[in-house]
């Protein structure tokens, strides 16, 4: 496919995703999609994040004209149960207490929608973190310092959150932050927007 000059749009209000996308050195705009993120009955985490990533991209298609729109979604899983963004201190304390000494699996859904061709590419990138044994005092100190209430799993790995873990297990660290850049580069290249050719 020949290189295109389609504008790039990030379908997310997340500052973490904007920081990651900026690493590619491509100009982009961002808009927050408004969709229902409720899981469907019987839907796996992998199915959920890919469906929502596509839905977020499609939600902006009518507002962006011809563009490459990036949609993303992420969930954390502990013992098969989905962990959402905590939203407040109490829920974050509960989440991190439950994660102490355990492994948590993240699924990050990614979609690149080309509104000019109607082509969409989706994938799910897994990543695991192994938590240290954490007592309440250490968890409270962490939450007081970082207040990660808008983060799935109640931590910011790019900050002090790294101290919560004994090990990170996965192929793309950026997937854990919320935007799998390795997979995104593959998708962009396939759509004629190779970051290394810009």
What is this structure's SSE topology?
Elements: E1 8-11, H1 15-22, E2 29-31, H2 45-64, E3 68-78, E4 81-83, H3 89-99, E5 103-114, E6 120-131, H4 136-146, E7 165-169, H5 173-177, H6 181-190
Parallel strand pairs: 1-2, 1-3
Antiparallel strand pairs: 3-4, 3-5, 5-6, 6-7
Question: Could you characterize the architecture of this molecule?
Answer:
- The protein has 198 residues and is α/β, with parallel strands linked by helices.
- It has a single domain, classed as Maf protein (Alpha-Beta Complex).
- The protein contains six helices and seven strands.
- The chain has helices spanning 15-22, 45-64, 89-99, 136-146, 173-177, 181-190, and strands at 8-11, 29-31, 68-78, 81-83, 103-114, 120-131, 165-169.
- Strands 1, 2, 3, 4, 5, 6 and 7 form a seven-stranded mixed β-sheet that branches.
- A hairpin with a 2-residue loop joins β3 (68-78) and β4 (81-83).
- α3 crosses α4.
- The longest helix has 20 residues, at 45-64.
- It is elongated and about 50 Å long.
- The two termini are 15 Å apart.
């Amino acid at each position: 496919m020949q290189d295109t000059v389609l504008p790039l749009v990030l379908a997310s209000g997340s500052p973490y995703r904007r920081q990651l996308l900026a690493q590619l050195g491509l100009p982009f705009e961002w808009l927050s999609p408004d969709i229902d993120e409720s899981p469907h009955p019987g839907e796996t985490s992998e199915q959920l994040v890919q469906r929502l990533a596509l839905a977020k991209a499609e939600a902006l298609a009518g507002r962006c004209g011809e563009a490459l729109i990036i949609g993303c979604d992420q969930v954390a899983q502990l013992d098969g149960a989905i962990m959402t963004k905590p939203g407040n201190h109490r829920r974050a304390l509960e989440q991190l207490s439950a994660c102490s000494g355990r492994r948590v699996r993240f699924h990050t859904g990614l979609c690149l929608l080309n509104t000019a061709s109607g082509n969409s590419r989706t994938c799910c990138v897994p990543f695991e973190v192994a938590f240290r044994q954490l007592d309440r005092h250490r968890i409270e100190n962490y939450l007081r310092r970082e207040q990660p209430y808008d983060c799935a799993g109640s931590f910011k790995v790019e900050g002090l959150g790294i101290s919560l873990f004994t090990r990170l297990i996965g192929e793309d660290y950026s997937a854990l932050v919320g935007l799998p850049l390795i997979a995104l580069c593959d998708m962009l290249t396939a759509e004629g927007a190779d970051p290394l050719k810009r």
